[in-house]
Amino acid sequence: MLVVSADVSDAVVAVRARTRSGTPAGCTGCGQLSAWCHSRYVRRLADVTLGGRPLRIDLSVRRLYCENPACPKVTFAEQVPGLTVRYQRRTPQLQRLVEAIGVVLAGRGGARMLRILNVTLSRCTVLAQLMRVPLPPLETPRVLGVDDFALYGGTYGTLLVDATTRLPLTLWEGRDAEQLSRWLREHPGIEVACRDGSLTYRQGIIAGAPDAVQVSDRFHLWQGLSRRVQDIASAHRGCLPAALPPTRATDPELIEETAGNTAADTRAGRHARRLFEAVHALTRTGRSHSSVARELGLDRRTVRKYARARTWQEVMRRPPRKPSTLDPYLDYLQQRWDEGQHSAKILHEELQGKGYLGHYQRVKMAVAPLRRGLPLDEPRARPPSPREAARWITTHPGRRSPHINDRLPRLLGQCPELRHTHDLVLRFAAMLDNRDATSLPRWLNDLADSGLAPLAGLAGALREDRHAVAQGITTPYNSGVNEGRITDVKLQKRLMAGRASVPLLRHRVVLIAHLRRRYADRPTMSPG
User: Fold this and answer.
1) Does the reported pTM lie above 0.85?
2) What are the b/e assignments for 439-476, b being 16+ CB within 10 Å?
3) What's the half-sphere exposure (Cβ side, CA atoms, 13 Å) at 121?
């Protein structure tokens, strides 16, 4: 029992308390009760704030003799349950608060939040208290999720997740097969392992848990196919303008030639033309893209883009002109120009009389093409990019917008390769929707015989992993929980400004998931 008195000052609330004499206390060494008092001393304990003010408890406790001759301790200090812990200057309640804030906000953010609560601790102390929190006991899951994440720079890490409870298990730096196989051998009993198409993780699971059923994630399968579709669309970039609706012009070839001449007069056009000619001059000699990239000082992907293009105009990015307040008056400008009025100032004044509120400079820029014998720069549609075309093809027909439904048939009718790719994509989507992998071998054969290099390469990779691919199509297991946890890992890294070491990151990722689960499971009290 305690005897308590309080003293309130402007800065801190001090509570003086002492334990009652004569009450036996358990020895911290052997546990035997003793009431033989040796001396007393005062412990100063910090507690959670009281009325917004820091609270300090000045607790007078006894030091007792241990009456057990076999105990290595001669004297011991008595502990007050719920108020004191050995070698601790904070009450258990304040310690739990410090640990929870450290888990949620890490060092610097946690120190700032504690300062708001009138608890002054440094960020190093908060991190030290966080690292002392023991991780929850690890239970071997039945369904394991394995995925990698970017740790920093070109370094990656591996995250393991219990796919049943959706809680992270552990993470480490690197993504090699040996680390994964070692962890699996130390934790036997895993029945299902969900992963992406990584050869490294496939080998690690085979070595560490050979009896586990491997599942190749459906999302990663679809993502891999979508990338191959984009590569095909990039290789047939010349077909993409066919998706545009017919123009009002009487001679499309003349308009294309005029647009090309206009682009050639620009700085970007001249740069694109020089690079196109240099890349094609070197690749025609049989040199690889990497060799050309080193000689020209370009990225390999840039060299590949220019090498695949048939003309330099294909690599020019010409975004559509944004709508302007001058657009409703373009026909009037053309009419007045044909009548002989070539003064931009006079044309601007006339347009102001018709309600135009724009600046004179816009009118001057609009009639500039007319002075060079070119048509007015009217708003025009832009051909889809290879990424947009791939997204059109891989989007479910029921979710396509009317804009896509209008343009995609024109594109597929113009390009047999994209039409064949579209048919293969629909067949794979039907397998995923029906969870039926019986037609997978035939689909892989058609993929390999399509005559399209990206799809043939994908067919070879999927054949090597066909059992896991079939499981990914037919079973409900997937790596969706892994992706969600990786998003959480990236969030925790950013909260710590990317300077977190792997042990600290592991501690926070595991503890914060259990903290959320614990408080989410608590029932909320209804008002009244």
Assistant:
1) no
2) ebeebbebbbebebebbeebbeebeebeebbbbbbbee
3) 30
Per-residue pLDDT of the chain (528 residues; tens, 9 = 90+): 455 555 655 578 888 888 887 788 888 888 888 888 889 989 898 888 888 888 888 888 889 899 888 898 889 988 888 888 888 888 889 989 998 988 888 888 888 998 888 888 898 898 888 889 899 998 899 999 999 988 887 788 999 999 999 999 999 999 889 999 999 999 999 999 999 888 899 999 999 999 999 999 999 999 999 999 999 998 888 888 888 877 544 344 444 444 445 455 667 778 888 888 888 888 888 888 888 888 888 888 888 888 877 777 667 655 555 667 888 888 888 888 888 889 989 999 999 988 888 888 888 888 888 887 777 766 666 788 899 999 999 999 888 888 888 889 999 998 999 999 999 999 999 999 999 999 999 999 999 998 888 999 999 999 999 999 999 999 998 888 888 899 888 888 887 766 678 888 899 899 999 888 887 756 555 544
Could you give the maximum distance between any two Cα atoms of the chain, in Å? 119
Helix (H) or strand (E) holding 2: strand 2-8
- What amino acid occupies position 213? V
Dihedral sign computed on CA atoms, order 236, 242, 244, 248? positive
250 contact partners, CB below 8 Å, separation of at least 6:
none
Burial of 195 (0-12, 13-18, 19+ CB in 10 A): buried
Q: Looking at beta carbons, which pairs linking 342-350 to residues 24 or more positions away fall under 8 Å?
A: 342/367, 342/370, 342/371
CA distance 249 to 254: 9
Other Cβ atoms within 10 Å of 427 Cβ, number: 15
Q: Is 162 helix (H, G, I), strand (E, B) or coil?
A: strand
Which residues lie across from 14 on neighbouring strands?
7, 56
Structural element, H or E, at residue 435? none
| Alpha-carbon span 528 to 526, nearest angstrom | 6
DSSP for 166-206? TEEEEEEE---HHHHHHHHHHS----EEEE-S-HHHHHHHH
Residue 42 dihedral angles phi and psi, to the nearest 5°: -105, 130
Reported as half-sphere exposure (CB side, CA atoms, 13 A), residue 498 has a value of 5
C-alpha dihedral sign at 349, 351, 356, 361: negative
Cβ neighbour number for residue 342 with a 10 Å cutoff = 12
The CA radius of gyration of the chain, in Å to the nearest whole number, is 36
d(CA 57, CA 19): 13
